Amino acid sequence: HPWLVASMVLIITWLGLRLCVTLARWWLKRRDHPFYLSIVNRLSAPLSGLLPMIIANLLNGELTYVASEQQADVGVLLTTFAYAFGGWTVIGLTDVLADTMRRQYHIDSTDNLRERKIITQLEYIRKVIIIVVIIITLAFILLQFEQVRQVGTSLLASAGVAGILIGVAAQKSIANLLAGFQIAFTQPIRIDDVVVLEGEFGWVEEITLTYVVVRLWDQRRLVLPLQYFIEKPFQNWTRRNSEILGTVFLYVDYTLPLQALREELERYLPTQPLWDGRVANVVLFETHPQSMQVRVLVSGRNASETFDLRCAVREHLVTFIQKNYPTSLVRMRVEMDNRND
To answer: Which domain holds residue 297?
Structure first.
């Protein structure tokens, strides 16, 4: 019976695909083939639906129905599923390419400026491609229906007015989308950049089509629209490279010998793995009536390590002053006149 044969072919096709996927995953996990493993992981599900739908469409013409309209309706249903799985397959191919690029460019390295530039552009373009594929897939599905085609013809006739209305209604969304393109290619920020904005310090974690997620130092997430980074000033500490200077301020008494502090800093920093060896400096920054302000300047490979280095240097130098020059800590001097009137 044709229906029985068609059902058996579909079931065997689907089971065969699942078996092939399972064997491929088992074999690839025991070998170092990340590219092929990515293909299996990303494409196995959509292809498991696309191939049976294509075969079902081919078999549909060979089957007999009680009513001729039923064959056309089933054909439209199968084609709809084929379009949906086809769009999913294209998105899967995009993800395979993105996985390949991520393996090639690691943003967890120390000097990762080039990698962050490429990954930022890659993520934005990937999101745009996914949106475009979804829109095109929906268009193909809807254009199967005569009523939708007639509506489309009517809309084309009034495209000018509709375009103006849509443009006004979606002004902010369009501005955000254009801001996303500007950020992706001019790159005032990139993935994993260290930024200071709204009084908060954090790392750029995600750039979407409409907003940016910043991971703050205490693991909170600050979500800002893309236009924020085009219209408002902010600090980007890793715009050119990840190396950064850290400052430690100490308030001490005038009796503290600064040369001893310099020698202690030069002795301590080589023992600190967070120090990159570039800058180590102690200067008298400012004087006050009761104390003097000493600035200690150190350098690190990135903002996170430099922050930890600043804390370690501050604690060490304060301990050094407490042990060796306790009378040089900030104190208030009061002179009392004991003369009798």
So the answer is: 244-328
Q: Cα 170 vs. chain centroid, distance in angstroms? A: 25
CA distances from 118 to 91, 141, 303 (A): 20, 34, 21
Number of domains in the chain: 2
pTM tops 0.90, yes or no: no
Distance CA 260, CA 267 (A): 11
Among 133, 153, 173, the domain boundary falls at: 153
**Residue 286 covered by a domain:** yes
Of 153, 178, 210, the position where a domain reaches its end is 153
Per residue in 49-60, is it b (16+ CB within 10 Å) or e — as a string? bbbbbbbbbebb
**pLDDT tens digits for range 128-145:** 888 889 988 888 888 877
Question: What are 329's strand-pairing partners?
Answer: 252
* Alpha helices in 222-301, H assignment, sequence order: 228-231, 258-268
Rounded Cα distance, 47 and 57, in Å: 15
User: Rounded distance, CA 117 to CA 103, Å?
Assistant: 15
